[in-house]
């Protein structure tokens, strides 16, 4: 490897963790959903496996029974 390639590789590998550590807006909203909807998920969707939006669908199907905080988190996720 040339010195130029080595330097470029080191520069890129040093920058990667900085990119990986910045959560996206969606990540923040999903974390809010987990925080505000935890009890609702446990109560209303206990057997729903996570992934593919299944828990969100379960909560939306029972929106009349979810807490106010969870409803607000879901609303922000829809925007």
Number of helices: 4
- Please state the CA-atom Rg, rounded to the nearest Å: 20 Å
Strand content: under 5%
Q: What does the largest sheet look like?
A: none
Tally of individual domains: 1
Q: Which runs of at least 5 residues are low in confidence (pLDDT < 50)? A: none
Order of helix and strand elements from N to C terminus? HHHH
Would you count the extended β strands for me?
A: 0
Outline type? elongated
> How far is it from the N-terminal to the C-terminal residue, by CA?
48 Å
Look at the structure and give the mean pLDDT.
Answer: 78
Percent of residues in helical segments? over 70%
Which class do the helix and strand fractions yield? mainly alpha
Description:
Helix 2 (25-44) packs antiparallel against helix 4. The longest helix is centred in the middle third of the chain and has 20 residues, at 25-44. It is elongated and about 60 Å long. By secondary structure, the protein is mainly alpha-helical. The protein has one domain (23-78). The mean pLDDT is 78. The protein has helices at 3-21, 25-44, 54-61, 68-78.
Fold topology:
Blueprint: H1 3-21, H2 25-44, H3 54-61, H4 68-78
